[in-house]
Amino acid sequence: MPKRKDIGPTLCPLARTADIIGDRWALLILRELYFGNRRFDAIRTQTGATPQMLADRLRFLEGEGIIARADSNARRSDYLLTGKGKDLFPVLYAMRNWGERWGDAGTPAIRYIHRTCGQDVGLESTCPHCGEALAYGSIRGEPSAALQQEREARRG
User: Fold this and answer.
1) Digits of tens for pLDDT over the chain (156 positions)?
2) Cα(132)–Cα(5) distance, rounded to whole angstroms?
3) Residues in a beta bridge with 79
4) Which of 27, 87, 112, 129 could in theory staple to 139 by disulfide, Cβ–Cβ 3.0 to 4.6 A?
């Protein structure tokens, strides 16, 4: 990661968390891992990070125990979320909800459907239909046509 000022010892959990994931690239990498993109090239394509930037952030997140590298063959690795990485889901989900609520896109970029009951959860952190708390793996995303087009354009 680029040199940054050490926050020093602190009991503040927000400061400690921001020190690890308070970087745009780290958040976008996590987004891609939550979307199921596990390969370097797919993550790079969707985040727009340079190869050096992405390699640096992946090493950092791996060093923090948020992701793990699984060698799938001699030349490629898959990047997988660890338990620690999966536990960040509510943080990114809350950021997504804030962005949908206060952004100016007009329509939601992605709908989330609760896997248990099959209902749209909107911007809630518990399913408004069955009351179950939403967690990593409990929802599936349905990108809007515009978001799908944006992601496909990056691949092209």
Assistant:
1) 455 567 778 899 999 999 999 999 999 999 999 999 999 999 999 999 999 999 999 999 999 999 999 976 667 889 999 999 999 999 999 999 999 999 887 788 999 999 999 999 999 999 999 999 999 999 999 999 999 999 999 998
2) 41
3) 69
4) 112
pTM score of the predicted model: 0.88
Q: Give dist(CA 30, CA 61) in Å, integer.
A: 9
Amino acid at 108: P
* Backbone phi, psi, residue 53, to 5°: -60, -45
If you count them, how many residues does the chain have? 156
The residues, any chain, with a CB within 8 Å of residue 15's CB and separated by 6 or more, are 7
